[in-house]
Amino acid sequence: MPSTPFSQSLRQLWAHHVFSYSLRVFIALTGSMALCWVLDRMDLLIPLFLGIIASALAETDDSWEGRLQALLVTLACFAAAAFAVELLFPYPWKFAAALALSSFGLTMLGALGERYATIASGTLILSIYTMIGIDQRGGPPVDLWREPLVLVAGAAWYGVLSVIWQALFSTQPIQQSLARVFRELGEYLKLKASLFEPVRHLDVGQRRLELAQRNSRVVAALNAAKEIILHRVENGRPSPQVNRYLKLYFLAQDIHERASSSHYPYNALAEAFFHSDVLFRCRLVIRQQGKSCLALARAIELRQPFDCIDQSQALEDLHTSLAHLRMQSNPAWRHLLYSLGALADNLIHLDRLLQDARNPDALADAQDNSLLDREPQSLGEALSRLRQQMTPASRPFRHALRLAVALPAGYGLLHLIHPTQGYWILLTTLFVCQPNFGATRRRVRQRILGTVLGLLAGWALFALFPSLQVQALFAVVAGVVFFATRTSHYTLATAAITLLVLACFNQVGDSYGLIWPRLVDTLLGSLIAGLAVFLILPDWQDRQLNRVLANTLACNARYLRQLMLQYRSGKRDDLAYRLARRDAHNADAALSTTLAGMLMEPGQFRREADVGFRFLVLSHTLLSYLSALGAHREQLPEAECRPLLDEAAERLANSLEEIALELAGNRPVAEHDETEQVLLQRLEQLPEEQDDGLRLVQNQLALIAGQLAPLRSLAAPLQRNPVH
C-alpha cells in the first residue's frame, strides 16, 4: 500500500535527529508541569524543570544498559553537587574555594572523553541551578535536602525516559548518524565534481579549499557514527542489526577514500582535454554518485529500500570517450590518459560500492571489524591521561583554569554589587566561556542577542496572554525549542530558554521584575567570560598553527607507510590501516577548524592566516594523492622498479616527518632539498612500459614528491611564531 503524503511527512519527522530528543523533553516538561498543577505545588516547578534541563544536557549516547549506568553516575554527581552547594552556601569564602576546585576538576574530566565531559558539564550546570534555587527562596532553609531532592528527581525523571526510549529504539541513533555520513559524502562528491569543469585557468586552489572544509564535515560525521556504533557493540560481537550498520559504516569509509582521491592536477587535465567531452563525463558520473549518496542517506533515515542511480551507461560512455582519446596516440597525453584511466577505474569501483549498499547484509564480514575505543579502559589509564594534561600547553587545562577563575570572579562580583537574580551571571559565564577566543566571541554575541529576543518575546506574550495555563504551555514549548536548536541555532535556543525562565518564574511570582536583571546578568557574565579567555593563558590559534601543521604532515607520513605495506602484502582493511587513514583525515579537519577559529580572532593574532589556508590547500591535495593510492590498493608484482618505489615512498615519508619535526620544534625549515628534486625526476623518468599497478604507484608518488617543495616554501617562514 503506497504511503500517503501525511504518513511520509510523519516518517520524515520521526527520522529527524532532533525529534526524539525534543519529544523526550516535551514529555518530561509536560509531566512535571501537570504534576505541579495537580498537587498545587507550583513552587516545585522551577527546580523540577532545572533538573530536567541539566539531565538532558548531560545525556550521553549509548545502549540502554550503558545509558542506565551513565544515568546512575550522573544522578550521584548531581546529588553530591547539589548537597555541597546547600552545605557551603552560607560560607562565601569556603564556597568560592569549592567552586574554583570543582570547576577545575570537573572540566579536566572532559580530557578523558566526550562522555565524561558531558556528565561533568551537566554537574556544573546543576550546581549553579542549585544556587539559583537557593537565591530564589531567599536563603538556605532548615531542611537542606529539599532543593537537591527535587532537582535530582527532575533529572531522574528525564533520565528514566531516556533509558526507556533507548531500549525501545536502540538503532535509531545509528541510522541518523549514518544518514548524516552519507549526506555529507553526497555533498562532498557534488563539490568534487566541480573540479572537473573543462575551464582553462580554473581557480583550483579555491575549489580545493572549499573541498578541504567540506571534508572536515565528512570526517566529523564519520567520527560521530563510529562512536555511536562502538557503544552498541557488545564484547566485540555486534548483534545482526548493528552488524548491518557496521558494514554500511565500513562502506562509507571506502567511499570516502575513493571520493577524496586525486590522480592528476586538474588544470593540466582541463588544458589538455579542453576540446574533449571526457571531463564533462567524469563530472556527470561524480555528480550522480553524489546524488546516490544523498538518496542512500534518505533511505537509511526513513528505513526504506535504497534505489541506486544506474550509471552503467554513463560509465560506458566515459570509457568510450577515453578509448577515442587513446586512439589519437598523442605522446603529450600519455601520462594524463594513464591518470584518467585510473580515475575511471576508481569511479567504477565507487559505483560498485554504492550498488553494494542496496543490500549490506549480503556483504562479507570485514577481515577486521574492530573499532578503536579512545576512552580510558581502566582507572590507571584515566589517571595517566589526566597527568599528561596537567600542563599549560594542554587546551583542557587552559579551559579548566579559566573557568576556575571566571566562576569565582562572577561569584565575588555578585557579592560585591548584590544584583537581583545574580546567579545568572555564573550560568552565563559557564555557557559562554568556550575553549578558544573565536568560539567564545561567537557565543557572547549569540547569547546577548538571544537573551534580548527572549525577553522581548516574554514581555509581549505575557501581556497578550495573561493566563497562567497558557504561559505554562509557552514554557514547555520554549523548552522543546531550546533542545531542538541548541547545537544548530544557539541564538534561537537562548531566546527559548530565556522565555522558559520567565514563564516558570511567572508561575510563582512576577517575572516582569526579572527582565532587566536577566539582561544585566547576561552582559556581566559575558564580560567575565570574554576577559577570562582573553587574559588567562589565551589560546590564540596562530600560536598553535605550527603544531597543527606538523601533526598534519606526520599523520600523512604514517598513512603513506601503511599504504606501502598494503602494496607489499595485499589489500587488507585492518585496524592499523584504518586508524592511519582516519588520523590523516582528522589532522586535515583539525587544520581546517584551527584556521576557521583564527579568522574570528583579533587582527594581530591572525597574521599567518593566509599562509595557513595555502598550506591547507597543499596538505589536502597531498592527502588526496595518498587517498588515490589507498583506493587502488593491491599487491604489486615483483619488477625491476619495485625497490625504487619502496625507497622513494620511504624517502617521502621521512621528508614529511622531517618538516613536521622542524615545525613542531619551531626550528627553521629548509626551503629546498636537492635530494627531493632528484627523487622527483627519477620518479618521472621510470619506464613507461610496466604493470598498471606499478605505474599508478609511480605516478602518485611523483605527485606527492611534487608537493614537498611548495610545502617547504610555506613552512619556512612559520618558525617566527613561538610555540606555547
Question: Mind explaining what this structure looks like?
Answer:
- By secondary structure, the protein is mostly helical.
- The protein folds into 3 domains: 1-169, no CATH class; 173-362, Methane Monooxygenase Hydroxylase, Chain G, domain 1 (Up-down Bundle), CATH 1.20.58; 541-719, Four Helix Bundle (Hemerythrin (Met), subunit A) (Up-down Bundle), CATH 1.20.120.
- The protein contains 27 helices and no strands.
- The termini are far apart.
SSE layout:
Elements: H1 5-15, H2 19-39, H3 45-57, H4 64-88, H5 92-109, H6 114-137, H7 146-168, H8 172-193, H9 204-230, H10 240-259, H11 266-272, H12 278-302, H13 312-327, H14 334-356, H15 379-389, H16 395-417, H17 424-432, H18 437-464, H19 468-485, H20 490-508, H21 515-535, H22 541-569, H23 575-598, H24 609-631, H25 642-664, H26 674-684, H27 692-715
Keywords: Cell membrane, Membrane, Transmembrane, Transmembrane helix
Membrane topology: Multi-pass membrane protein
Main location: membrane
Strand content: under 5%
* Total helical segments: 27
Give me the secondary-structure category: mainly alpha
Shape: globular
The CATH topology of the largest domain turns out to be Methane Monooxygenase Hydroxylase, Chain G, domain 1
The biggest sheet, with number of strands, parallel, antiparallel or mixed sense and barrel status, is: none
- Estimated radius of gyration: 29 Å
Give the strand tally.
0
Regions with little confidence, pLDDT below 50 for 5+ residues: 720-724
List the secondary-structure elements in sequence, H or E.
HHHHHHHHHHHHHHHHHHHHHHHHHHH
| Mean pLDDT across every amino acid position | 83
Total domain modules? 3
Distance between the termini: 65 Å
Specify the helix fraction band: over 70%
The CATH level-2 architecture of the largest domain is identified as: Up-down Bundle
Organism: Azotobacter vinelandii (strain DJ / ATCC BAA-1303)
Membrane topology: Multi-pass membrane protein
Subcellular location: Cell membrane
Transmembrane segments: 21-38, 44-61, 68-85, 116-134, 149-169, 446-462, 492-509, 515-537
